[in-house]
Structure of HTH tetR-type domain-containing protein:
Amino acid sequence: MSTVTPRTQRGTRTRSKILAAAEKVFATLGYHDASIVKITECAGVGLGTFYLYFAGKHEIFDEVVEDLNRRVRMAMAEASAAEENRFAAERAGFKAFFHFTAQHPALYRIIKQAEFVSPGALRKHYSKIVEGYIQGLEASQQAGQIRVMNPEVAAWALMGIGELVGMRWVLWEGTEDSSGHRPEMPEEVFEEMMNFIDRALAPTGAQPTVEG
């Protein structure tokens, strides 16, 4: 047995509460020091309730990774969907990514743990992000908005830029507030990063048109 989908709204709320508690415990204590008892204590539910929805610690860890992945992809997709050109969409997507990571620094901490705890979940996390990225880059190439390039290589490179810049200026800067949020990405850092990306994507001999 892996994870179980609740049949009632109450069950859905309980499962979500356990998942949120697991995210907090894994991010705070790390996978090896975390325990199902600590997760249920954080969630305010009994041990038996945990096993109604999850088979064990490893299964809920994978579920936390998948849930964070879904939420960050949704945030980025919603932010960039309304933009009319690739450069504006890149800006909106990265803005949403950095805002999400400032609000949910557990994303970095848990994904780093996944390298050792669940390599399959780690690969799935990055692959899902890249799949959508490749599609967007391919469509932009066909529309002549960006230069011709290998969209898979470009997608991985762009994702790497965003992750490391976010680590340096979101995760490592300042301290978390009472809600567990970290400072937002400094505007001057964001603009410098986007200038670099805009020039990398611009068609040969053209200057990108960037809103903002």
The CA atoms of residues 25 and 40 lie 10 Å apart. The radius of gyration is 19 Å. The chain has a mean pLDDT of 92. The chain is about 70% helix and 0% strand.
